[in-house]
């Protein structure tokens, strides 16, 4: 049966691959985005909804639009996020707070709003996109790592809080993925990263999407509070 799925930040990279995976399975997929051409997303059969998740009013309005066209959100993939990399002594208050407000507090906003419908339906699937950086740490990314680590505690707390309502909360922690962002790195930087990855390659966005689809499927109905690494072995043991 086709479900109402929302992927935040689903207009490119990992988010778009996730959206396509659900659409290919027959689900109705809405995507939030902040910039870009929504017509491209519409042509692929998605419902594009402009939304800045740092604005509670925009989040609420986005859900109203999705609920009107697709029904209450049954599967939420919280993928939207930003980076503002900087060494600690050079990191400004704004660098830190902007990343936390988007990646962690923004996720709180979209999850809380989705749970309104999930509680009524007494079922739901929530998947948060974290990062191997949230488990390992990364020099120059204290803000990003803190925000992504926070998603683990957030998901596990809600797994305990709402498990009896048949709502699952899980986390996918990607490693280095072959996206526009990583393609901007120099050959030297890319080679240095691959030296750390046991499988000696970058992940494909579709490999992250497959893990997310699994966690949202009936086959994963007894999995909640889990952190699934899709990182080529980079973060093993964490």
From TrEMBL:
Family, as annotated: Belongs to the short-chain dehydrogenases/reductases (SDR) family.
Role description: Catalyzes the NADPH-dependent reduction of beta-ketoacyl-ACP substrates to beta-hydroxyacyl-ACP products, the first reductive step in the elongation cycle of fatty acid biosynthesis.
Subunit structure: Homotetramer.
Keywords, in A-Z order: Fatty acid biosynthesis, Fatty acid metabolism, Lipid biosynthesis, Lipid metabolism, NADP, Oxidoreductase
Example GO molecular function: 3-oxoacyl-[acyl-carrier-protein] reductase (NADPH) activity
Catalysed reactions, semicolon-separated: a (3R)-hydroxyacyl-[ACP] + NADP(+) = a 3-oxoacyl-[ACP] + NADPH + H(+)
SUPFAM superfamilies: NAD(P)-binding Rossmann-fold domains (SSF51735)
Taxonomic lineage of the native organism: Bacteria, Bacillati, Actinomycetota, Actinomycetes, Kitasatosporales
Organism (species): Streptomyces meridianus
One matching Pfam family: adh_short_C2
This protein's name: 3-oxoacyl-[acyl-carrier-protein] reductase
Database matches in InterPro entries: 3oxo_ACP_reduc, KR_dom, NAD(P)-bd_dom_sf, Sc_DH/Rdtase_CS, SDR, SDR_fam
Ketoreductase domain residues: 3-180
């Amino acid at each position: 049966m086709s479900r109402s799925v929302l992927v935040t930040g689903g207009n490119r990279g990992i988010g778009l691959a996730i959206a396509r995976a659900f659409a290919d399975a027959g689900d109705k997929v809405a995507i939030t985005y902040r910039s870009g051409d929504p017509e491209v997303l519409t042509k692929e059969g998605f419902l594009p909804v402009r939304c800045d998740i740092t604005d509670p009013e925009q989040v609420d309005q986005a859900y109203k639009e999705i609920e009107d066209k697709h029904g209450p959100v049954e599967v939420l993939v919280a993928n939207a996020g930003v980076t503002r990399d900087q060494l600690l002594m050079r990191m400004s208050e704004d660098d830190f707070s902007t990343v936390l407000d988007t990646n962690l507090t923004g996720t709180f906003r979209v999850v809380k709003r989705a749970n309104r419908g999930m509680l009524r339906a007494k079922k739901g699937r929530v998947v948060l996109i974290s990062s191997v950086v949230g488990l390992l740490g990364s020099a120059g990314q204290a803000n990003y790592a803190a925000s992504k680590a926070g998603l683990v505690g957030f998901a596990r707390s809600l797994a305990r809080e709402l498990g009896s309502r048949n709502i699952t909360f899980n986390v996918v922690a990607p490693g280095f993925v072959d996206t526009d962002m990583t393609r901007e790195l120099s050959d030297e930087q890319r080679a240095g990263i691959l030296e750390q990855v046991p499988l000696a390659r970058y992940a494909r966005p579709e490999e992250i999407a497959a893990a997310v689809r699994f966690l949202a499927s009936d086959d994963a109905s007894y999995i909640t509070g889990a952190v699934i690494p899709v990182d080529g072995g980079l973060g093993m043991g964490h």
